[in-house]
Specification:
about 475 residues, alpha/beta, Aspartate Aminotransferase, domain 2, Aspartate Aminotransferase, domain 1, 2 domains, seven-stranded mixed sheet, 16 strands, about 50% helix
Length: about 475
């Protein structure tokens, strides 16, 4: 059997040659991106490295077919192959997560959440109204009845984690369409521990009585007890929706199980397929049978034509995640995050919640180094370490400059980094930030954006990082 990496090298060289014949600048940008990713310590918690088969699955003529509708019920003819692709992707998702139903069409995480929100609204508001009025579809309603239904659909309540506590824009915040759809309230974390206070959350839910209780996060470095979340939702008559976009790989890899696995507890679960799941950029919605028909109306309710090439790539990645090796990978992600946290803590760094038990670490760079998140992010990037600035609870620097940086281990774990490597990475991070100082403004006060990095630090850090990266090459054997 031929070497698959050699075969991939030949395929990618041919691909880049064809692209260059039309627009060489794009071919060069593609090659440069691989070079940059190979040469950087990627610690962005929402990024990963998809496998070569997963990447190749995206570049096919499945992109050229319109397939609005669902499997076997399309608005266009000739969709039999897209039907196969979507059915296989959904099958792998159901089997991987133990879900009763899976919907593979969402193009992104926000699309998955919009499908979920509207499916819940359809199930909880629209369907009962149609039954009460004896109407089969919304087209059967009088103008007055339709106006009342539209008012009811747009007047529902949603409750999710606050942004500064680690929530996400798509959980009902005003800058996002979800915040314009719902009357939204946020639950935060305990000001002392940084952890979710379930008793306070329960009391807040009793007072607010949301239709949808959202659990899940983008920057909360701990696990969630979804059994308690479901108890709270049931108590106030809410639907429990979990956005597991960040930690889906830890669920798939059985690192999160029992009460920490959202699938047995939530009626609707959304996720992206990249991040810790290590697939292509896209989304999924998982649901109980009760909500399946409503979710299945995602197209045309929210989505347009599904992306056949992306669903094919999702199917490949989900098939990979069903292999025993993926469970080993998921455990390594969690172990590496803990090792990174411990390495930072022992070097005097303050972490939100004091550590981690998932895939991410949230560093308080203001309290630890006197920097804003923007300054820390920039100094680390200069030194070959890719992170992103992030708010911390009750952040005095706001959502743009921030007081924290978020670190994640899915990508470096995909490269084979070990817990010992992560301790070394922690040392590099602290070394850079200790040698970074804010630039003073014209008013004589420390600025929030500009900074000064001590001479030689960036070059020395890149050199040390290069040794670690050399021990764990990205796509070894792939030569362009």
């Amino acid at each position: 059997m031929s070497d698959p990496t050699a075969t991939a090298s030949t395929a990618y060289r041919a691909m880049l040659s064809l692209i260059a014949s039309v627009e060489p600048r794009i071919a060069e940008a593609i090659k440069a991106e691989l070079d940059d990713q190979r040469a950087s310590l990627k610690l962005i918690a929402s990024e990963n490295y998809a496998s070569l088969p997963t990447l190749l699955g995206m570049g096919t003529w499945l992109s050229d077919k319109y397939a609005e509708g669902t499997v076997g019920h399309r608005f266009y003819a000739g969709c039999q192959n897209v039907d196969t692709v979507e059915a296989v992707a959904s099958e792998h998702a159901r089997e991987l997560f133990g879900a009763e139903y899976a919907y593979a069409q969402p193009h992104s995480g926000i699309d998955a959440n919009l499908v979920a929100y509207w499916a819940i609204l359809s199930h909880s508001i629209e369907r009962p109204t149609l039954e009460k009025l004896g109407a089969k579809t919304v087209h059967d309603l009088s103008q007055n009845d339709w106006d009342r239904l539209r008012h009811d659909l747009g007047n529902q309540r949603l409750m999710g984690m606050s942004l500064d506590a680690g929530g996400h824009l798509t959980h009902g915040f005003r800058h996002n369409i979800s915040g314009k759809m719902f009357d939204q309230r946020s639950y935060g974390t305990d000001p002392e521990t940084g952890l979710i206070d379930y008793s306070a959350l329960r009391q807040q839910a009793r007072e607010f009585k949301p239709l949808i209780l959202v659990a899940g996060y983008s920057a909360y470095p701990r696990r969630i007890n979804f059994a308690i979340m479901r108890e709270i939702a049931d108590e106030v008559g809410a639907v429990l929706m979990v956005d597991m976009a960040h930690f889906a790989g830890l669920v798939a890899g059985k690192v999160f199980s029992g009460d920490e696995d959202p699938i047995p507890h939530a009626q609707v679960v959304t996720t992206t397929t990249h991040k810790s799941l290590r697939g292509p950029r896209g989304g999924l919605v998982l649901a109980t049978k009760e909500f399946a028909d409503d979710v299945d109306r995602g197209c045309p309710m929210v989505l347009g034509g599904p992306l056949g090439h992306m669903m094919a790539s999702k199917a490949i990645a989900l098939a990979e995640a069903r292999q025993p090796s993926f469970q080993q990978y998921a455990q390594l992600v969690a172990d590496n995050a803990k090792a990174l946290a411990e390495g930072l803590l022992k070097r005097g760094t303050r972490l939100v919640t004091g550590g981690t038990d998932n895939h991410l670490v949230l560093v308080d760079v203001a309290g630890s180094f006197g920097l804003t998140g923007r300054q820390a992010e920039g100094a680390l990037l200069d030194s070959g370490i890719v992170t992103n600035r992030n708010s911390i609870p009750r952040d005095p620097n706001g959502a743009w400059y921030t007081s924290g940086i978020r670190l994640g281990t899915p990508a470096l774990s995909s490269r084979g980094f070990t817990t010992a490597d992560m301790d070394a990475v922690a040392g590099l991070i602290v070394g850079v930030l200790q040698q970074t100082t804010p630039t003073t403004t014209a008013a004589g006060v420390p600025g929030k954006a500009k900074y000064s990095l001590a001479e030689g630090v960036a070059a020395a850090t890149k050199s040390a990082a290069g040794e670690l990266l050399g021990n764990h090459p990205l796509y070894p054997g792939l030569e362009l």
